[in-house]
Amino acid sequence: MSIMLRHILNRNSNSYIGRLASASASASGRLFSWRRRTFCSEPQRESIEYDVVIVGAGPAGLSAAIRFKQLCRENDTDLSVCVVEKGAQLGAHIISGNVFEPRALDELLPQWKQEESPITVPVSSDQFLFLTKNHAFSLPCPFNNTGNYVISLSQLVRWMGVKAEELGVEIYPGFAASEILYDSNDTVVGIRTNDMGISKDGSKKENFQPGIELKGRVTLLAEGCRGSLSEKIMDKYYLREKGHAQHQTYALGIKEVWEIDEGKHKPGAVIHTLGWPLDQKTYGGSFLYHMKDRQISIGFVVALNYQNPFLSPYEEFQKFKHHPAIKPLLEGGTVLQYGARTLNEGGFQSIPYPVFPGGAVIGCSAGFLNVPKIKGTHTAMKSGMLAAEASFGVLHKGSSMEKYWDALRNSWIWEELYRARNFRPAFEYGLIPGLAISALEHYIMKGRAALTLKHGKPDNEATNVAEFHCRIKYPKPDGVLSFDIPTSLHRSNTNHEHDQPAHLRLKDPKKPELVNLPVYAGPESRYCPARVYE
User: Fold this and answer.
1) Residues 6+ apart with CB under 8 A from 131
2) CB distance 117 to 159 below 8 Å
3) What is the pLDDT of residue 503?
4) 3-state SS assignment for residue 289
5) 488: enclosing H helix or E strand
6) What is the mean pLDDT of residues 125-149?
7) DSSP-derived secondary structure for 468-483
8) At a CB cut-off of 8 Å and minimum separation 6, what does 517 contact?
9) Is-contact 314 334, C-beta < 8 A?
10) Which has the closest alpha carbon to 96: 319, 360, 289, 278?
11) Coil, strand or helix: which one is 174?
12) Which residues neighbour 27 within 8 Å (Cβ) at sequence distance 6 or greater?
């Protein structure tokens, strides 16, 4: 019996169904079922059937699960929902610190303010600064954070997980989805979790456990930015072409959580910056949010279409913390956490057709980040809710999953991203022209310009060859405000067993030696904030 199967039995052991399943398993060791869930203990692989399978327990996936079960209650029907999450616990892969717009949550759980949610720190001030090497100049703030909150997103996800389970959603953390399952008609029918107990050379160890098949009548992919299964689905079914979408553009965000002196802490204060230390051809900036309990979340975002192959996003962040407007706040403080993630920045122009045979792509897997707001949680949640409503229609009323696409285009997500569509492409012309165009778009045209700007080259094509640039000499970390990568990685609480397969595989193993190093001076040794590439 697999680890996941034992986990499911343990979770249900106190219920009548759980006891019945355990008894049946002990008696036959082969087959037992309840409702639409079927366990089949075959020699190699087990299969569990649900009505809806959701990959990813982030804001989008949990919103979809909650909304689906709400509809079940409203219509007096019982359909099963399973959420599989690769993190060891909910929120494990989400580092704290977020300015949260509660619009979607107001719709999903209207009583959240009365239910002891972890949303308690309203935005108290909002600054937007343009940095030069030694100065900070205040700019008009375009973010409009009135009514928003500074939160720990990982805490919000854990709270949403509790709400989902109260409705009957089954959530299984610690199991990564590794493969899409198809039927004979090429329709998606679920996912397979990763095999456990595989050594680095691919052989099976003594503790080998085959992955389990989670089959769903509807499968929703909520993996986050550039999820591996979502990307495979979009390629297989030509979803980007079907939606007439441009290529997606990306940024890398690097974040730390600090505990600072009480006298410097201003709960709810929000600061964003542009400019130094990046050059004027590189889009990016910083954020600094005062959370509760003397904690701040500070981070730096660099668009991945930067031209200089010698640029290191990690080192730019370390350099940024020494700016005169930032350094005094951090002095005397302590770093608690470190993490990094990619962001979808393509916005409206890059939204793919999100429906595929057997399911849909939701949240940041599709890419609903509002770049000028630097917010995507509320749009991700709303997309999950819309997908849940379409899924319920498919299973309960026999309607089409395409209703998700129709609902999406008629929702406030579509309107919001359309109004913000020209902000990110404006910076293809450089920092100062980008500020001028985006200001015109935001303050004068208010997102109603007749022209829709297009993105430039795909990120990987934007990098220049090394001979066009000089090496960037970054200062050595002082161990007080700035740190080397091994020190930061220790704070990320990321642990991988040494004897396991590499989670990154190169399509062409010869390319780093034949192209990356001689032509681009090995940029992979600098752009990865975990120094995975050697």
Assistant:
1) 137, 273, 274, 275, 276, 277, 323, 325
2) yes
3) 73
4) strand
5) helix 485-491
6) 95
7) GSPPP-PPPP-SSS--
8) none
9) no
10) 289
11) coil
12) none
Closest by CA position to 304, among listed 254, 262, 349, 263: 254
Confidence class for position 534, pLDDT limits 50, 70, 90: low
**Which H or E run contains 272?**
strand 269-275
Could you tell me the two tokens for 194? 């990763």
DSSP 512: I
Decide: helix, strand or coil at residue 254. Answer: strand
- The letter for the amino acid at 434 is G
Q: How far apart are CA 28 and CA 20, in angstroms?
A: 12
- 177, 186 in Cβ contact below 8 A? no
Contact assessment for residue 265 and residue 292, using Cβ atoms and an 8 Å cutoff:
no
DSSP 514: I
The CA-atom distances, in angstroms, between 421 and each of 101, 122, 389, 448 are 19, 27, 26, 10
Query: Contacts by 440-444 with C-beta closer than 8 Å and gap 24+?
Result: 442/142, 442/372, 443/140, 443/142
Place of tokens 């430039």: 456
Tell me the DSSP string of 187-219.
Answer: -EEEEEEPPEEE-TTS-EEEEEE---EEEEEEE
220 beta partners: 54, 360
Q: What is the pLDDT of residues 448-492, one digit of tens each?
A: 899 999 999 999 999 999 999 999 999 999 999 999 999 999 998
Separation between Cα atoms, residue 364 and residue 310, nearest integer Å: 29
Q: What is the CA radius of gyration of the chain?
A: 24
pLDDT for res 93? 85
Is residue 153 within a helix (H) or strand (E), and if so which, with residue range? helix 153-166
DSSP per position, 33-96: EETTEEEE--SS--EEEEEEEEE--SHHHHHHHHHHHHHHHHTT----EEEEESSSSTTTT--S
What's the chain's length in residues? 534
